[in-house]
Amino acid sequence: MINTSKIHLDFLKQSEAKRSILPSHISLFTAMVICCQKQGQKSPFRITRRELMSLSAIRSFSTYHKCLRELVNQGLIDYNPSYNTITASQISFNSVAPK
Description:
Elements: H1 4-17, H2 23-38, E1 45-47, H3 49-56, H4 61-73, E2 77-80, E3 89-93
Antiparallel strand pairs: 1-3, 2-3
Helix pairs in contact: 1-2, 2-3, 2-4
């Protein structure tokens, strides 16, 4: 069981220092935390694009994929996509301790 409150708080503290983290990134990360909490705070957890876009209020597919890719590139999350419409993709949080 992971501590999603600490992960979320550390991410928000880190976002203050990084200009590359935009409100859309914060919204998407927060949606991931909510999904993780709904699934019992286990890691990795499963997500669907539809649910994350709805929770984060991101309407554009390109913005969603851009933010997701940038969170992966910054080392904040690990993303294992599922190319099957039945099976959801997997996400796990990396340590995001503030610097």
